[in-house]
Amino acid sequence: MDQGRCLFCQISQGKLSSKKIYEDDDFVCFHDIKPKAPVHLLLITRKHIVSLQEVSHRDIDLLGRMIVLVPFLAIKGGCLNGYEGGFQLMNNSGIQGGQEIPHLHFHILGGLNYN
């Protein structure tokens, strides 16, 4: 899929609306429109990378910053409310891995009760 038709590229470029909670030069984070948890955020790269299967050594800095951003976004999004709070971080890679949108993204899920 070319970047012009990529749903997440369109969101990151402001061509499609989303309920954003964060954005900077490299990342955008917004609420999933089909949440699987009380809090369901999507963290995407502005750089079009199809999946984790396509990252390279050139993406080390970008991915490192992406991971470091996750706890901040979990707090900002409402996943971490004191000691009992927590979140689940998910990535689906490739069609057989359950990836629906061919653009690298992390799911940040909160508010689930595993007790």
Please describe the topology of this protein.
Elements: H1 7-12, E1 20-23, E2 27-31, E3 39-45, H2 60-77, E4 87-90, E5 105-110
Antiparallel strand pairs: 1-2, 2-3, 3-5, 4-5
Tell me the Rg in angstroms.
14 Å
Mean pLDDT: 92
Tell me the number of helical segments per DSSP (H or I, 4 or more residues long). 2
CATH topology: HIT family, subunit A
Runs in which pLDDT lies below 50 for 5 or more consecutive residues are none
How is the main sheet built?
5 strands, antiparallel
Distance between the termini: 41 Å
Estimate nothing, just give the exact number of structural domains. 1
Q: In the CATH classification, which architecture applies? A: 2-Layer Sandwich
Q: What is the highest CATH level, the class?
A: Alpha Beta
Q: Looking at the structure, what is the overall shape?
A: globular
Major sheet strand order: 1-2-3-5-4
- Summing up helix and strand content along with how strands pair, one would put the structural category as alpha+beta
Order of helices and strands: HEEEHEE
Per DSSP, what share of the residues sits in E-state strands of 2 or more residues? Answer: 15-25%
Question: Got a strand count?
Answer: 5
CATH superfamily: HIT-like
The percent range for helix content is 10-25%
